[in-house]
Amino acid sequence: MPSSDNKLSVSLLRRSGTALLQWIDSDHCPEGTENMRNEPDRVDWVRVMPFVFLHAGCLGVIWVGASAFAVWSAVALYFIRMFFVTGIHHRYFSHKTYNTSRIGQFLLAVCAGTTVQRGSLWWAYHHRHHHQHSDEPEDAHSPHVHGFWWSHIGWITSRRNFPTDYSKIKDLAKFPELVWLNRFDLVIPILFATGIFGLGQGLAHYIPQLGTNGWQMLVWGFFVSTTFLFHGTGCINSMAHLMGRRRFKTDDDSRNSAILTCITLGEGWHNNHHRFQSSTRNGFYWWEIDPTYYGLKLLSLTGFIHGLKPVPQSVLDEGAHADHYASVAAAQKSALVHSHYTSLRRAMPTVAAIAVATATASPAAMLQRKTNPAVHKDVSELAHELKAKAFKDPPVI
Ligand SMILES: [Zn+2]
Ligand SMILES: [Zn+2]
Asked: What's the whole-model pTM score?
């Protein structure tokens, strides 16, 4: 028995030592990336610690109090860094929807590092994997496969999702400066938090009438703002496959939601994005507000970024057709319900009339689903083919 106890202690010590080193060096993986990726999905309590730390830091408001300057700084840092998440982690590193110079790319990765969502390469690797396997068992954060909380936060705490598989993102892994930032992904967040603290101390000294200081700025500008930023981003993984409307019949359950768009500066048009990932804009039409796209468009005027990719006309036409048929179907369904309701109400109680109307509407909806097979999710190259098909074979309503 003592020997098995010793073995357990050694194994625990080794595991703790590895976890400790991984705080500093994300690429430290003695058991091999592939072996780690093959581990079963489960919450690893060591990986939960940063989230406990982040949320516990918010309780600091009890001791540091609040000032208008600190609170507005937290709000501003939320939206600025949400732009970094969506415009850099997502629309640049994950999908390469625009171009920049090599120095520009490095600066983008530094800015994205302040979001405290690990390195851009880790982010891009997992996000590309999500598009490849959306809402399939392989998808690391599908709410349909793994449930809401797992898709929102649990998946990040699983050891199998910790490493970055550089072999799957060769276009990014060829830049050693990006790999360095990804490997030592705590460097930028620590510098960022220290900078905020220093700013607060400086303001307390030079502009005391603002009523703030280093600790207050650290709590509001770093802990509170970063916690909200994490949950705002997490909503896309959890809610954007549950809440909203589906314009395109992609073979996942991605949805468009104006509410999620407001929280995430344009990422709520998630069904659009799953239909065509290569476009810089996620809001495909003028009425679909997309602040990230507007910001990137402004940035492109400075020459810092260039080559923003548009949505192909064929995809826009496909969306317009889908909207048209959906509105006609909705009008017909409503007329159907209404006519049944008015003709039956004289002879039958109200509840029975509605039941008849519902029963006749359901087979029609089922027929529509059967006659509209799902379009494969990665279909950018098939855009023209689909356009031709849409005109030749309009959906049955
Ligand atoms: Zn998605
Ligand atoms: Zn994406």
From this structure: 0.82
